[in-house]
């Protein structure tokens, strides 16, 4: 099918679909209701309103090379039963929860939408004490449901077959959008005659229209008491990369529940629609001349492991690799959740706790343009859009190497029915040619020694596509006990239309708020903050946070030929405010989480440290509404006492929240954190000043931080890893077609 | 041969060797001369005094799997002739230079040692204008020679067959030590009866002794006018890891030329020799139980490329890979020198200049202990020890993956004769499972798009073992135009003996200057600074340095619902002081090198930026003698106008220098740098507070920075790279023995 025709057909079909879905799932029926019902649409809607997913309980067959492998992840989701206290809700459990909810008022009596439906994790002590031979703790579900009465936070006991707790949601702040919220919102303006007129006046064919649902943030009282969203649109004429063709200055304010157009701003019709030229990025559509150059110059290369990977994923979720064991699950909000992280100690022969739970808690992505169509772009991608919901199936061989294994996500749609996001997470062993440790003796000593050990790591990866942007999140486990958490940014910029097509037209004093990337296209400056929740349990739950500050000491006259040296001062944080950390290059510290009850053989406290790498700090005014909501980025590190209800740094109800329930607010309570079960929060940051290389799609930019043992082991725990020898390595030949 | 016997024999043989070498090569013959001459020793000495190297002109045969490969590096050094203006001196050229020098007074009339003998690179404009079909510019050698008269900097023209320039060295500061300086110095104290008596008094057998040559730094007038070195010793009884068994408090001050013991300090004979238990790290000597755990859990894994690598190394030194071309050579001081870095532009179809020359200019490693036996440990590893001289042959399959190719170094020994350091540099393509760029459409837009490109890079690596420490230096080239410079630290700590074997014995107020790592062993806190010389030539030699400062702008009341946003302010540096940069997290900037005469199609200045990652800053008092010598670490970035004589950040003559010829001094001249041929200097830093995991050998710690295109290309230059497809990838099976 030719590209444009295909896209148009797709749009029209989706449009029909989605209006139907709105009808079925919205608590408030849309006023203008022109649904088309056909048999196959109804069939689809029997299962779930989200029909754009083709991955129901029968995911596509795995590619051949993954078929007969012993480490294949269980994919029969229909029959799967949980085997670990932290296993996510199964298809059957989601269905059961839904049926319980359907007979529970007000859900039984009112239209409703399910915004969250996940495992209510058992109390930590139950999980820690559980052993595999014992039955699971009671299985419970946690649901956030929106009805005509507002939001409800419910706990459903699946053994007791009933709702055991129901709490109303807060006055301000709404739950995470459903996929159905987002998709239906993008099409809703088409029901508005004035909107259509505006589009046509811009010279754009309605079938070329692609719109995005943009969270509104919160900027004052007039935005309260209803779920609002802003819609901005693009032209997908002659390109799949519609993001590069913004209809600049056109913003529709929409009521997300009624789908009513509240306001249309159409301010910059003077700005031309940027051209489609050079925006395409799909390999099949590129001019062949573009890629011939690379095709012939890079020979096939692959990470090969013909004996198969060294890890297992037991019972679907427990990853066992080298000296590590942890529980891995997909989550609609956080994406990846890593739990019960345990490492084998070669000295004691025991398995030791490192971290109870680690996840991406929230993102904050403020754009740096205060003008009308841009000021509100201050995304919080987890709490508003669902970082896991946006994690699409990974592309085997490209998103992850050939030796990767994949895990599906099982989530609930807006109607409470389960759906499967296939291949949402991959797990693979990485050998990148790096060195775990080495030493060669030099001619100085004359000893003939050269001992080098290759570094092999285990990577857990997902990639979330929050509309234009793609976030690649890696948890990488090293055999030496280090965990590297890395975030890569790729995808497509959110750009702004401009009348300029060359910098020589721009008056010297005019602020473009970004960089001219192509004719009539500005890449607007923005930041990315990704805040991680790290419930460290170093050899047990009760830990302390220690700032090891490196301070210059000056020697006394005559004491030494040296005037100065660095000394490490240890400060144990007593309360939360002691642990609000901003990094300073000229006042450096290490940040340890220690177990004050455990010492090494030599009397050092056992610990892990958080090691920052390149990062950025938010410079926005703390009283700026977006920064108040994103106040969890005011410091790079925070430490709080463990509290079940404090997992989402921007609050549980982030959408249109005012910042009343963020990590920054909790930390101000200044609770004791010494020798307590503590949670460490770390924020990775990026300032992004776009450049032409980011057009039409961005090369990946990454940053990371490490969680690293510090006097946790008695000595180097990988002293014993063997070197590579030729006779062990794979025997390979080139593919016939390569 | 059993370990200890082997070591003892080795020591005795080496000892004999080295005393002989001292006799032959030192400008001042040692006073107590008990050389043993045998025929084979003399044979060896006919070639070069450095007999510990077994890699003469016939390096060991390459392993089988490297044999018949088209990309094999030329190894017939005896007959090799230069083919590029920047090619290092060949074996023949070094011999020729030596013969010219031997008839040049005062070398012809006095004992001498050759401290540097390398190519005198032709003037930059000659290199830039040279084309392959033309003859090379005149070949010249640059030599630094020490005679009884002091040091001499000489230029030798190999076509004219004569010395064309001779300049005396500075009054203070000595040339880089030769390997012979270092090795002979470690054995020299054995000629001193008092020294031997001291060792015996410590209860140590002389055959177990291993000593290290420690540069003295400079701490005052009394250390001037002779080449001094400090020797500290260890016991290698029952371990190859003698570094963990320091004879604490014993320091010998030695005259490096006369080998005369100037002073013996023996202060802490109360401190016991740490035990050898658990110090061994050689795989063959470890308790098999230690490594069985890992052996069985990690299946073989390899980067495989059965069609061979995609790069060529033309004429031995010009690397051609994907869209990159550059000249690569080993250097005795810098290690790796990358020159004439050029990238293919897919838009224009042309090759464009990026960097004229990049190298590791200097290292500064101050230890943070001001006491008697430690205060002077403030190493400058390039200018004192020779970062390239210390780069040992890489271990195939472990230092570099199986698909790597190797390059030998050809250097001059102290007598001016050439020797070959085989496999000193490796080059390989890396596929680590990473993603070059990606985008998947989410259900929000409903488009069925998932485009992902794997990231394949080219790595140039060397590993220098400066006695205990191992530095792994990678230059990694990405197809998107980014160059990542990464330094990994591994090897063995320099440790301090202590009487404590548990922290509970340490009085609360006592400063250990580090961490107790094992019984009686302290890992002393220290910093590492690695300063890179980056002669950027972005699309030509005349460039400017631009600081793009991100500053918070506050909106006026009523202007916007936002109170604040970030704006990029561009500051073009006029002179050197404008470009002395200390990083500030809360005052962030980008650092661009632009070509002010070139713009993109859209009118943006073409440029590259330096992107810092995790780093550390030196906090020492600027007036502290070590910091005065290491003053090039006072900022993280400096920019200077190109000047042939300013390549070594710590000065040309670093040994015992007083800091009078460092980058910090040059930069204070505040010369104009706008639209000039400029050099950017970047310092990578690490604070290292040792922990028990660093014992007995350290897991690698890495940090890096990037050199990255910013509006250099008109658009993403890797839009055209193809995705991986199954049919192109290698066909592998497990090795029979795996």
TrEMBL record, chains A, B:
<feature type="active site" description="Schiff-base intermediate with substrate; via topaquinone">
    <location>
        <position position="469"/>
    </location>
</feature>
<feature type="active site" description="Proton acceptor">
    <location>
        <position position="381"/>
    </location>
</feature>
<dbReference type="InterPro" id="IPR000269">
    <property type="entry name" value="Cu_amine_oxidase"/>
</dbReference>
<dbReference type="InterPro" id="IPR016182">
    <property type="entry name" value="Cu_amine_oxidase_N-reg"/>
</dbReference>
<feature type="domain" description="Copper amine oxidase N2-terminal">
    <location>
        <begin position="84"/>
        <end position="166"/>
    </location>
</feature>
<feature type="modified residue" description="2',4',5'-topaquinone">
    <location>
        <position position="469"/>
    </location>
</feature>
<dbReference type="InterPro" id="IPR015802">
    <property type="entry name" value="Cu_amine_oxidase_N3"/>
</dbReference>
<dbReference type="Pfam" id="PF02728">
    <property type="entry name" value="Cu_amine_oxidN3"/>
</dbReference>
<feature type="signal peptide">
    <location>
        <begin position="1"/>
        <end position="25"/>
    </location>
</feature>
<keyword id="KW-0186">Copper</keyword>
<dbReference type="GO" id="GO:0009308">
    <property type="term" value="P:amine metabolic process"/>
</dbReference>
<dbReference type="InterPro" id="IPR036460">
    <property type="entry name" value="Cu_amine_oxidase_C_sf"/>
</dbReference>
<keyword id="KW-0801">TPQ</keyword>
<feature type="domain" description="Copper amine oxidase catalytic">
    <location>
        <begin position="302"/>
        <end position="719"/>
    </location>
</feature>
<comment type="similarity">
    <text>Belongs to the copper/topaquinone oxidase family.</text>
</comment>
<dbReference type="InterPro" id="IPR015800">
    <property type="entry name" value="Cu_amine_oxidase_N2"/>
</dbReference>
<keyword id="KW-0479">Metal-binding</keyword>
<dbReference type="InterPro" id="IPR015798">
    <property type="entry name" value="Cu_amine_oxidase_C"/>
</dbReference>
<dbReference type="GO" id="GO:0048038">
    <property type="term" value="F:quinone binding"/>
</dbReference>
<keyword id="KW-0732">Signal</keyword>
<feature type="domain" description="Copper amine oxidase N3-terminal">
    <location>
        <begin position="175"/>
        <end position="273"/>
    </location>
</feature>
<dbReference type="GO" id="GO:0005507">
    <property type="term" value="F:copper ion binding"/>
</dbReference>
<dbReference type="InterPro" id="IPR049948">
    <property type="entry name" value="Cu_Am_ox_TPQ-bd"/>
</dbReference>
<protein>
    <recommendedName>
        <fullName>Amine oxidase</fullName>
        <ecNumber>1.4.3.-</ecNumber>
    </recommendedName>
</protein>
<dbReference type="GO" id="GO:0008131">
    <property type="term" value="F:primary methylamine oxidase activity"/>
</dbReference>
<dbReference type="Pfam" id="PF01179">
    <property type="entry name" value="Cu_amine_oxid"/>
</dbReference>
<dbReference type="Pfam" id="PF02727">
    <property type="entry name" value="Cu_amine_oxidN2"/>
</dbReference>
<keyword id="KW-1015">Disulfide bond</keyword>
<keyword id="KW-0560">Oxidoreductase</keyword>
<dbReference type="InterPro" id="IPR049947">
    <property type="entry name" value="Cu_Am_Ox_Cu-bd"/>
</dbReference>
